[in-house]
Amino acid sequence: MHVRFETPEKPDSVIAFLDKHGFSKTQVTNIVRKQLELLVYNTGRTLLPKIEFLYSVGFSGPDLIKLLTNYPTLFKTSLEKQIIPVFNDIRNLFQSNDKAIKVIKRFSGILSHNLDSNLFPNMDILRRHGVPESNILTIFLNQPRMLMFGSVVRFKEIVEEVKRMGIDSSKMKFLVAIVALRSMSKSTLEKKFDIYRRWGWSDQEICEAFRKYPRCLTVSEDKIMAVMDFLVNKMGFDSTLVAKKSSVLLQSLEKRIVPRALFALELLSRGLVNDFTLSVLFDTSEEVFLRILVNRHADKALELLKLYEQKLNKTQVTRRRDFGSCSAAPRVDSID
């Protein structure tokens, strides 16, 4: 875009205005690069009222500067016709300026959007399917984009699909499932199903895994293959057990799954444990994991802790190398 300046007076006044209100040289450069035409704007009539309004509703100086640097289009957006009405709509949903500001900080562009085109229709769809208002506001507060983009028709299809899968709409998991399905196209979703089928999961098992841990379908194809290969082919876990405890797929392969599994094998070989479960191995916090598998052996606790740390360090070094065969590993018959 080309902007013609008859004199340098107006551009200089805009730059001086931004500098006066705390914008760094780098931030000013970024703003001008994104919205060059701002250099011909009247600072007192166009720019200042927006800054004053944002301050008046509770934005701090650093937050305001970050907002306008990330989304300088707001400088061009009508204050009276757009910014104020949208802010008021968001504030009225929460009955809170602070929460409205949190939403705007998480989605800088929301003040220039028409909330009637996506947000309000999508909220109404959720209400009609029995989602509590508190849950709707929680998801909007934490992930405002989820309710703002895409086709309303497609959003309705996803909500109905999650409902058909038997997830209780009164629970937060219902919205987590919607977020998961909304994050991918239909073709990507089918690819995920195909990968799980490759590991012997039936469609019913895939749906059951999704009902329990909706985010298992958001795991990348490479991650699914790597985790399943290690657990099934290296560790000897039955694939259907993993299906019943699919939360393991969300854990880090290098930082949690591999070192804990190798450590558990070492304990088995020493006769210190008779068996182990997926839940204990992968879903417990570090503190609980150490308490169950290390601290219970008081006379060997220090030695076992060093051993576990060795497994952690070795995994960090080898990272994506082949971890070798663990064919001596017994099959695990329980998940909890």
What's the SSE pattern?
HHHHHHHHHHHHHHHHHH
Strand percent estimate: under 5%
What would the average pLDDT be, to the nearest integer?
88
- Structural class call reads mainly alpha
Helix content: 55-70%
Distance between the termini: 61 Å
Counted beta strands: 0
Low-confidence stretches are 319-325, 327-335
Total of DSSP H or I helical runs spanning 4+ residues: 18
Chain oligomer state: single chain
Largest sheet: none
Radius of gyration: 27 Å
Please state the overall shape, judged from the principal axes of the Cα atoms: elongated
Please summarize what this structure is:
By secondary structure, this protein is mainly alpha-helical. It has helices spanning 9-20, 25-34, 43-57, 61-70, 79-94, 97-106, 119-128, 133-142, 152-164, 172-182, 186-198, 203-212, 221-234, 239-244, 253-269, 278-283, 286-295, 301-318.
Characterize the structure shown.
The chain is mainly alpha-helical. The chain is built from 18 helices and no strands. Helix 7 (119-128) runs parallel beside helix 9. It is elongated, with a radius of gyration of 27 Å.
